[in-house]
Amino acid sequence: MKAIKYFVLGAMISISAPTFAQDVDYGTALGPVTQALKSNSAESAVLVKNYLKEYKKNPEAVIALGNSYLAVKNVDKAGEMADLALSKAKKDLKIQAQAYILKGDIEALKDESGNGGGAASHYATAMSLDPKNPQAYTRYASIYRKINPKLVEETYAKLKQEIPDYPIDAEAGHSFFSANKFDKAYENFAKCKTSDLDEGKLVEYVISAIQLRKYSEGLKIANAGSVKFPKNLTFKQLGLWSAVETSQFDEAVKIAEQFMQMEGVKNSTDYTYYGKALLGVQRYNDALVQFNKALEVDANAVEALGKISEAYTGLGDTDKALEYSELYMKKNPNATPSDYGKLANIYVEKGNFDKALAIYDQMAEKYPSINTWAYTVAASVANKAGKADVSASYNQKIVDVLGNKTGLDADETGYLKTALSLLGYYYWGEKENLEAAKPYYEMLIKLDPEDKNAKAALGIE
Questions:
Q1: Which helix (H) or strand (E) holds 429?
Q2: N or C, which terminus of the chain has less Cβ within 10 Å?
Q3: Helix (H, G, I), strand (E, B) or coil at 424
């Protein structure tokens, strides 16, 4: 499975509401002001004026209004509120910290370069003014999550010193996830109890596991999420994917049946995974239904085409299997060696050995790193077809590639020994030409001094 691509929607700052406890009076009064600002109502100016007339001396209320301005991206007015709050809270360091967090949020929203330097300096000021305010640390860490993970870790370590009970690991996991640092996100989420994570962070945890191809862990997390948040479609979806990737097909089918009954849009990948689960339990006709649904949703769902071929192979319909395998290869510019091998196998089953050999030639050319493997399989196919000369030509290609290569790995040594042995037999046994066979046996004896045929051909007792 390819690594799945996710677009993480979420700002590093929360600007829709104040980040501190609201006084009941100003909180109630701020509601209509915020709504008017969001709707760009003509009466917003009057509402703001009346609000400030009542709460201008309350710096918390002023900061709350600043956050409302920031929510509609009015950074100038938000900045005015931050400065006003600072002027009213000269002796209250905690309130000053809240004002600097707002100023940092403003700079983060304005930042065009992406380096976040201006925002970071305000968050750092907030941290120094009120070391017990977790928002200052999390905002500061969010600035550096992409460019300096080490600094992020240090920041959360400081937060842990100040507030030992704060859910730092979960917050750090979220921060790293938002920066697409899935390894660090997973590392931090794994320190948490699954039951302690909120819905959003639990989704991020399972996505991180899947991005790292930790499918067994992903399945466990997804199942836990499904129990805790049964209406969340994502846990069933990712649980299905993970179960298939770990070949737990019975469980995958069970999850898929539940998933498909839930409300919500299903994409072509979902239907394809359901089909793969059904393939795994050999329900080939049911699998075909799901793969065709995938194609109905997305005509370019090429994986479904390849899986349809597999389903028809399971049903023994090699004609249909070949039809869809060829279509899959035609539409898939990212076909893997395994895909080529499946198509070649279908040709072999249909007795079209020339077509199969042509596929292996394509593989050898397209994937030089596995060309000797492709030649080895092709030699076997040619031999099965009764084409001894063709088989020998493929074995010769292996010798040409590996014969003078140093530092052969175990697989390469095996391919070369097999090719030399078969070429020796071809010339000595098939062509009755011992002299032509000897050079191959001489190479073989160096690789395997105890090879009986080589010893006999070379007169070695």
A1: none
A2: C
A3: helix
- For residue 2, pLDDT over 80 is answered with no
| DSSP-assigned letters across all residues of 178-227 | HTT-HHHHHHHHTTS-GGGS-HHHHHHHHHHHHHTT-HHHHHHHHHHHHH
pLDDT at 22 over 50: no
| 8 Å CB contact between 193 and 221 | no
**How would residue 112 be classed by pLDDT, with cut points 50, 70 and 90?**
low
Tell me how far apart the alpha carbons of residues 74 and 219 are, in angstroms, rounded to a whole number. Answer: 44
Q: 314-317: which pairs have CB atoms within 8 A and are 24 or more residues apart?
A: 314/279, 314/282, 314/284, 315/284, 315/285
331: left (phi over 0), alpha (psi -120 to 50) or beta: alpha
Residue with tokens 């009755």: 432
How is residue 83 written in tokens? 């400065």
Using 50, 70 and 90 to split pLDDT, how confident is the model at 116? low
Amino acid at site 345: N
Q: What's the average model confidence in pLDDT over 256-277?
A: 96
Find the mean pLDDT for residues 101-122.
80
- pLDDT beyond 50 at 58: yes
Integer Cα distance of 101 and 98 in angstroms: 5
